[in-house]
Design a protein that fits this description.
Elements: H1 4-8, E1 15-19, H2 21-30, H3 40-46, E2 82-91, E3 99-114, E4 118-129, E5 135-145, E6 171-176, H4 181-185, H5 198-203, H6 213-228, E7 236-243, E8 252-260, E9 263-270, E10 275-285
Antiparallel strand pairs: 1-3, 2-5, 2-7, 3-4, 4-5, 6-8, 7-10, 8-9, 9-10
Length: about 290
């Protein structure tokens, strides 16, 4: 059983993470960029001597995080039943291609959905450039704690999801993932064996290791800038979405998009199984 007051007051020590241009390139390679070494848009994220070399905005998701803190005994959480439900990030300044980032995490909300329905945990992380004190990004997420409902906490308000447009998408962008992509992406810091060990994956009910949800998010964010900003990743200022189904490495991720000014509604599906894997997506370009 979790305690609402205790969990809401939980303190997280600041996390300091230094990274280099090599790490920035590795993040892009972990999304599958560089598959076409002649694509100039890919080179902006994978080649440090390219005039437009920059860090992909979605990289903020893997920097200076608190780790899987839900496993710590004092949380009262049934960590084995926690799912990553939603994710968002907002860029306040460009992410440097190398540097030291300080991350500060806090829990912003707990929603009790009922004894048999679980709980929602809202969290937020600010990322600051240590050298300049500049606020780089705000990263937020929703975790679905399936084993922790009925603790007597508030039943709302639940954050609304972005409503998707009706009709066929205006633009689609396909990204074929490599069968071994999860083995590359995990080098960004998520070493959960679910993404590497076939036996662990089968034990969790999957036919083989699955792709990280944040990798799928990164692919969608790249696809949006490829479709609407000529591959200029720095054009992406905000992104939010809901995770709806896992991806198997080797599948093709199709990002389906509807544009309204600087806002892009989107979802992503895998073509091989015709199943939506990201939903209720909203991106803002600037």
């Amino acid at each position: 059983m979790i305690s609402y007051d205790t969990l809401m007051a939980r303190e997280f020590a600041p996390v300091e993470q230094s990274y280099t241009e090599r790490d920035t390139i590795l993040y892009a390679l972990g999304l599958g960029l560089g598959a076409d070494p002649l694509d100039k848009a890919h080179l902006k994220a994978t080649y440090e001597r390219d005039p437009g070399f920059c860090a992909l905005p979605a990289m903020v998701n893997v920097l200076a995080g608190p780790g899987f803190w839900a496993m710590e005994p004092d949380t009262g959480l049934v960590w084995q039943k926690i799912l990553h439900g939603e994710q968002s990030f907002t860029l306040h300044a460009p992410l440097p291609t190398s540097g030291t980032i300080v991350g500060e995490t806090k829990i912003t909300g707990l929603i009790d959905k009922g004894a048999d329905k679980g709980a929602l945990i809202y969290s937020e992380r600010s990322l600051t450039d240590k050298a300049t004190g500049t606020l780089i990004a705000t990263v937020a997420g929703t975790s679905f704690a399936r084993g922790n409902g009925g603790f007597g906490g508030p039943t709302g308000p639940v954050k609304p999801v972005h409503k998707m447009p009706e009709g066929e998408p205006e633009v689609v962008f396909d990204h074929k993932t490599a069968p071994g992509l999860a083995l590359t992406y995990r080098l960004n810091g998520d070493y959960n064996p679910l993404h590497a060990d076939p036996e662990v994956a089968r034990g969790a009910g999957f036919e083989r290791p699955i792709l990280h949800g944040l990798c799928t998010l990164g692919i969608a964010s790249w696809s949006i800038t490829a479709a609407f900003a000529d591959g200029d990743a720095s054009a992406l200022k905000h992104l939010q979405l809901r995770f709806s189904s896992p991806v198997y490495p080797g599948e093709t991720i199709r990002t389906e998009m509807w544009r309204d000014g600087d806002e892009v509604s989107f979802r992503a599906r895998v073509l091989e199984r015709d199943i939506v894997v990201l939903n209720n997506g909203l991106a803002r370009l600037g």
